[in-house]
# Entry
Amino acid sequence: MIKMVRFAHLADCHLGSWRQPELERLNFESFIKSVDLILDEKLDFVLIAGDLFDSAYPSIEILKDTFEQFKRLKEANIPVFLIAGSHDYSASGKTFLDVLEKGGFCKNVFEFEENNGKMKLIPSRVGDVSIFGYPGKKSSMEVEDLKNIEIPPQDNFTILMLHTTLEDVAPHPEIPKVRKESLPLVNYYALGHIHQTFNTKLGNSEFIYPGPLYPNNFQELADLKQGSIVIVDVDGWEINAKLIRIPSKEVVYIEEEIENSLTATDQLIDKLDRMNLKDKIVLLKLKGEVKQGKTGDIKFDKIEEFVKKKESYSFLRNISKLRMLDESFELPSFDLEEVESLEEEIIKKYSEENPHDFNTRLPQLMGALSIEKKEDEKSSTFEERLLSELKNILEIKESI
Ligand SMILES: [Mn+2]
# Structure
């Protein structure tokens, strides 16, 4: 029988994801608040189930702040176990998670040995608990791999960390998913990737998504308003998981139908004028079919100025559901977060018309090629990083 163990389960922190500095601040503050809570509660360990960083190569600023928080945990002797997610994974295996690990600030639990074409995962031990993990990859590439993982029998409490989509969650019918029944049996599945809180059971095993540490885009801010983590109590084989919402700035979501873009500015300002926006995140979503005027006629700078005068904390707008009647030549406006799914859609269509094994590598290739040279990074370092990434994706073994 194992003794009482308490741990925190975080996922999808996406540190460094917001382009708006004031929202990135809230994102990072949620991380600090979680660390505060973990220290206050004197938890035994911490799990981060992928996407700690928004990219495999975060900025120096983000790295500095992140190391500072990991140092607080290390000084309190609270170990951190993590896996890479779809965002901080890199095909070459070169990611800043390694830097954190080599510094002794965390342990990447993804370890395995080949066993007759299967992948036998190797546990990381903390007290009476065995932790296994398999990372997320670009474009759900991990879903196929997960059919081949094995966990050697254990007689203590077991945790499997995964960054993937369970069939049960299913908000996105088009993406590949994992059947929970097909996974090796453990006591607790520490999941990440889906930016919503979700839990389900199979026998006595718990499957939990804590949700993102902080909302990551316009829609998540509208839906979730704040981030969350899970604190788990294990007593014997009894699992008690508690969802903790991380307090943050209030969100005001405004959805407005626009028919005439010539009068839209006044219409919106009139509406905003009747609201209390002080210190709030203001989300403005425009929808409908514009019968008079063009999108350009809506004076967003004037609206933003007005919202600022009302002392809002941040202002975001979204016009992806606004259609123009007589501008069929105009490209539809996409949100930044939709770009990736649009790319996937194009690759899918292309692959159907031009079937070839190579196509499965396209998302990874695009991901690798989209990483820019860092400021001050030597060209040779950048070239070497890019080449080793590409060789891994293309499975080129010999160096050229
Ligand atoms: Mn994520």
The domain at 5-246 is CATH 3.60.21.10 (Purple Acid Phosphatase; chain A, domain 2). The chain is about 30% helix and 25% strand. The mean pLDDT is 89. Residues 12, 14, 51, 85, 87, 193 surround manganese (II) ion (CB under 6 Å).
